[in-house]
Amino acid sequence: MEPQPDAQGQGQQDKPAIKVTGAQPPLEFTGLKLSKPANTSAGIKGITTAFTHATRYMAAGQAVKTMFRLNQKGGIDCPGCAWPDPDDERSKLGEYCENGIKAIAEEAQKKTIGRAFFQQHSVAEMRQWSDFELGKKGRLAEPMVLQAGGTHYEPVSWEAAFQMIGQELRTLDTPDRAIFYTSGRTSNEAAFLYQLFVREYGTNNLPDCSNMCHESSGQGLAQTVGIGKGSVTLPDFYEAEVVIVMGQNPGTNHPRMLSALERCKENGGQIITVNPLPEAGLRQFKNPQRPGKMLTGGTKLTDLFLQVKINGDIALLKALMLQLWYEEQKAPGTVFDWDFIQEYTQGYEAFIAGLKQHDFEDLVQASGVPRAAIKAAAEMLRRKKKIIICWAMGLTQHENGVDNIREVVNLLLLKGSIGKPGAGTCPVRGHSNVQGDRTMGIWEAPKPAFLDQLKSVFGFEPPRRHGFAVVDAIKAMHQEQASVFFAMGGNFLSASPDTEYTAEALQKCSLTVQVSTKLNRSHLIHGKRALILPCLGRTDIDRQESGPQFVSVENSMGVVHSSEGVLEPPSDTLMSEPAIVAGVARATLGERSKVNWAQMAGNYDHIREAIAKVVPGFEDYNERVREPGGFYLPNGARNRQFNTPSGKALFSVTAVPQKSVDEDEYIMMTVRSHDQFNTTVYGLNDRYRGIYNERRVVMMNQEDIAQAGLKSGQVVDLIGQYKGQVRTARKFIVVPYDIPRRCIATYFPEANVLVPIDAYAKGSKTPESKWVAVRIRVHE
Fold this sequence. Notes:
The chain is an alpha/beta fold. It contains 30 helices and 33 strands. Helix 1 runs parallel beside helix 3 and helix 14 packs parallel to helix 20.
């Protein structure tokens, strides 16, 4: 169901983009302060920062109560990331990190906003606020509607909101004109109910946040080892001989991962870090759960830092494997795991023939990493067999993102480092249940077996035609092939590429609906009519007809466990996500539905009973999820059972990317600050990088600054040209930083306006947010 190519095709390339007022964060500066980048992470500063956020935005008693239930067995699953909790004992000092507390403080704010707030502030006024200001206004307290032509959101009853949605959906000439987006915060129960409603309604238009982050991981892993998930468990990190961290900044994005890396080091393991930016979290770690470690300086994590050029990863991996192949020729049988290769893999001959076509020095040049460092990495790997490679957006958000993952798998296959303790693949998910949502069926391209089970259990014929992923959904709305947009959580506008284009697309809809806990920019860039439906958060007690409920989630390593709120909801008019889905389903489908929506929403055990019948691995779901710590889902790659056509893991032949930029262009990648989770801005300080009180910055190599005739602190515009279209991000401050030549880094969402809608990974359509060619011009 591809949208027509004129979304940004030849017919529209000469048309100037229409700037949507308020689609981008405001351009005003907030007062940049710089310091030397940090060499250590966490420690006392992390503790004090966490408590400052908690006490500033939460009631003191609620903050303490929440902290000691966060990530505990039977407690609240932190919405801040998807890093797994220990299977055994958990820290009594608090099983959380600094950014986890920031996430909780953002959700469980003591302030609420309802009709009085929206009566006072127009949409036009709120568009001028920063993302930081929007998020800190308070918890949404009641459903609101913005009528066509209106200037202010107004209160609306839940029943009226449901009827408005149902009527709009029923009047569409085809269900495929509706888009149903899902954020990774959504629980298993809500996600399953959501996809059930959408498919009974009649479409597979279920784009989700994984389309924008780890879709390349899922595709690359499924093609090579037969499952789109990682193969390792948390205890594997404790046994690993070498952990390679690629394109990932754990200290900010998954801070509790540092504890696992610390334990790996204490058990004799080594860590190789591959990234264009040196990050404090992978240098020295002061574990807040271990006061003695903090007082003695903490633990050095990275043994070898490979500062790769942006998108130089395939060249680096090929250079490593070529060097290992040379060593294997010198001492046959001592470097490669031939027993594993012969019994469990296919395609080695074609792979090695392709590898040998490359010149080592050419690969070194393409990677940007000195040859001595690459040889040092190869020596660290030469006699090791327990190797874990973990990665995040630095590998996936490229045109060759899927190939990046397939190349990672190639290295692990050579070493026999899949399907045994201490070894395997580890895509680290950023959102707390994005992996679980996909398991529950949130996918625009569902497998026939899943749809067959839905039909068998519920008695309706699910649609078979694939729906729109994020990029195609945006194009469909822009071309007016879709007219209703429904978001189950998230901040779609700010998370998506090509901000102005996405804003235009949303504004062409007849109705946009946002299920949210707090205000964000997607509420302000809307369709002709817009609804805000406030929902319970992870921290809130969820009371339904049968009594208090819990939900469940799946972490990055395939563990399904419960999450139960402990705080009284901030408003009596909030509804849970399952209850909202059920209300919309009843109003839309009426008597023709074959699902008892009221029963499902009244007791989540009924949802889990249905999941157990539809989704493999969830047998006896209600019993197993109540076990402390939950349970592991089946994972073939973990047991060397590869669900590929041949039943074996597949080597891949990939090409070194040949993309280049003109002499006056730079390669830009977008990154998070330390005070940020996806599009949620907790604060204005990127403490580890030494950048304070400002987000409109561009990090540049000092030699590039001098060569361009620029200076630190100068205000510039970033200009991208792609397929005849020019995109401009105005007013960024030059900041000298340790980054490879001709590479620059900026924060998102501020720089998302530069990411073209048509620039995405082959095979996954993940936006190419880590490789954008831009020119830098002095701002006038």
